[in-house]
């Protein structure tokens, strides 16, 4: 069986979401391991709120993966709208906050937007019981 263009696009979109998640996880590890200021890591310097701030790209990556999976499997218009909205809002947040609290989130936001643009949409498929489970 030869894979269709839609399945390749779905795999690429999933790969981009996974890559965004891996980058985000590496960002979290870096705040614990790499010294930033006065031989302190960002976690030591900023306290536990630093984890909350740097965990945002990882959480958004996971949410985006779920939304794009739903879009690819069901063709849901709502999932499409949520994916584009989430991607654009997180991109705007990462650009505006890039000089302060969202430093490092831009690559993850760009990967997620690219995943939304590449993800195929299955037209005409309704959300049945098998997709809900």
Structure report:
The protein has 7 helices and 2 strands, in the order H-E-E-H-H-H-H-H-H. It is mainly alpha-helical and 133 residues long. It has a two-stranded antiparallel ribbon. The chain has helices at residues 5-33, 42-46, 49-54, 56-74, 77-96, 106-118, 129-132, and strands at 35-37, 40-41. It starts with a helix and ends with a helix. Helix 1 runs antiparallel to helix 6 (106-118) and helix 4 packs parallel to helix 6 (106-118). 26% of the residues are buried. The protein is elongated. A hairpin with a 2-residue loop joins strand 1 and strand 2. The protein has one domain (5-118).
Q: What's a quick, concise take on this entry?
A:
The chain is mainly alpha-helical and 133 residues long. It has helices spanning 5-33, 42-46, 49-54, 56-74, 77-96, 106-118, 129-132; strands at residues 35-37, 40-41.
Silhouette: elongated
Widest sheet: strand ordering: 1-2
Topology order in helix (H) and strand (E) letters: HEEHHHHHH
Low-confidence stretches: 124-133
Main pleated-sheet profile:
2 strands, antiparallel
Number of domains: 1
Strand content: under 5%
Helix content percent band: over 70%
Would you count the extended β strands for me?
Answer: 2
């Amino acid at each position: 069986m030869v894979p269709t263009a839609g399945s390749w696009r779905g795999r690429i979109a999933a790969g981009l979401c996974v890559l965004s998640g891996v980058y985000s996880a590496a960002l979290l590890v870096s705040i614990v391991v790499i010294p930033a200021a006065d031989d302190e890591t960002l976690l030591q310097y900023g306290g536990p709120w630093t984890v909350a701030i740097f965990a945002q790209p990882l959480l958004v990556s996971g949410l985006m993966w779920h939304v794009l999976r739903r879009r690819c499997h069901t063709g849901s218009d709502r999932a499409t709208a949520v994916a584009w909205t989430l991607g654009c809002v997180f991109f705007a947040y990462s650009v505006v906050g890039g000089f302060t609290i969202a430093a490092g989130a831009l690559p993850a936001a760009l990967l997620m937007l690219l995943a939304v643009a590449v993800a195929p949409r299955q037209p005409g498929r309704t959300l049945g019981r098998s997709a809900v489970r």
